[in-house]
Amino acid sequence: MSLPTLSAPVLRTPERCFDAVRDFPYTPHYLELSGGSGGGTPLRVAYIDEGPRDAPVVLLMHGEPTWSYLYRTMIPPLLAAGLRVVAPDLVGFGRSDKPSAQRDYSYAHHVAWMNLWLAQAGLERVTLFCQDWGSLIGLRMACAQPQRFERIALANGGLPTGTAPVPRAFKLWRAFASYSPWFPIGRIVRSGCAQGLSDEAVAAYNAPFPTAAHRRGARAFPRLVPIAPNDPERAANEAAWVQLRAWDKPFVTLFSSRDPITRGGDRLFQAQVPGAQGQAHQTIRGAGHFLQEDRGPELAQALIAFVNAKAAL
Q1: Active site includes 132?
Q2: How far apart are the C-alpha atoms of 118 and 98, rounded to whole Å?
Q3: What is the mean pLDDT of the chain?
Q4: Cβ distance 78 to 303 under 8 Å?
Q5: Percentage of residues in the chain having pLDDT higher than 90
Q6: What pLDDT does 312 receive?
Q7: Fewest CB within a 10 Å sphere: which of 3, 92, 101, 256?
Q8: Domain segments of the chain as ranges
Q9: Given pLDDT bands bounded at 50, 70 and 90, which one contains residue 91?
Q10: For residue 96, which of 222, 225, 218, 223 has the smallest C-alpha distance?
Q11: Pairing between β-strand 98-99 and β-strand 251-256 as defined by DSSP bridges
């Protein structure tokens, strides 16, 4: 795996920006990506790593425009169940480094960065939980390093190839991210929650992004989703789909009932992934796009049941 070379300097959010985040008491760990003899621009990836070192790993992959804070109500029950919980901040988000040039953000770069992070972190026996962009990246990670993964839980996400119709809600979101002079990240997250979001949580989602330059990754992500047949990542995602159609390890879908972008996408995976057969797929009622915010503890219990069902076989 090679580390991409960037065209502009990298930003790092000052730690003081997180001083007011009160309900996320986890010590951040840091791993500097190295590309070996391939060169590339070093980047520091932040992640939460809690629980027994020898316990099964639950890897929580966040999406756009959130960070690992998204999982704050899921982490305690997962830890209480005896699991090891690892939640990285994607490059450009949270406490992870942020390329300052928007052109340095690409789908391929994000997959390369997180595959390097996964390999350097040495995680094994992984249950992947992924949502939104966490699935576009996380499913590619599982297909690139399948030996590290024991099962997958997919929530409000997918792996688009640019050949299917695009929901109108996503087209509007993509246009807003591209052209709006105003990009209030915390309020954007609130708009994706069916149950509302406190002002304190809105501030916590704003914390990693003190300037417009820090928000360039969040701005870039919507335009990186493959929505046309000529997308540069179409071939890579189609190759990953070939692997998913042969994936016989447990695969469960936990989609919400009130997400206008991904609603119904769970049926595609249930029909095409062999490991999805016979699993306890759920529709999380009363939850919007960010179902971790709306139904975090309920979602955690579904994930625990999924892990334990495999362990009991």
Answers
A1: yes
A2: 18
A3: 95
A4: yes
A5: 95
A6: 45
A7: 101
A8: 10-311
A9: very high
A10: 218
A11: unpaired
Q: Which residues, 6+ apart, have CB-to-CB distance to 205 below 8 Å?
A: 65, 66, 67, 69, 185, 186, 189
Q: pLDDT by residue (tens digit) across 268-287?
A: 999 999 999 999 999 999 99
Identify the band that residue 313 occupies on the pLDDT scale cut at 50, 70 and 90. very low
Class of domain 10-311: alpha beta
Calpha distance 164→162 (Å, rounded): 6
pLDDT exceeds cutoff 90 at 37: no
Query: Whole-angstrom Cα distance, residue 233 to residue 230?
Result: 8
Model pLDDT for residues 118-130, shown as the tens digit of each residue: 999 999 999 999 9
Active-site residue identified among 49, 214, 289, 294: 289
| Cα 144 from Cα 138, distance rounded (Å) | 10
Q: Evaluate whether 113 touches 4 at the Cβ level (below 8 Å).
A: yes
Give the pLDDT confidence of 170-191 residue by residue, as tens digits: 999 999 999 999 999 999 999 9
- One of 97, 259, 266, 294 is an active-site residue; which one? 259
What integer pLDDT is reported at residue 36 of this predicted model?
A: 61
Contacts of 31 (CB under 8 A, 6+ apart): 44, 45, 47, 117, 120, 121
Active site residue 266: no
Could you tell me the CA-to-CA distances from 260 to 15, 76, 155, 175, 187 in Å, in that order? 35, 29, 13, 16, 18
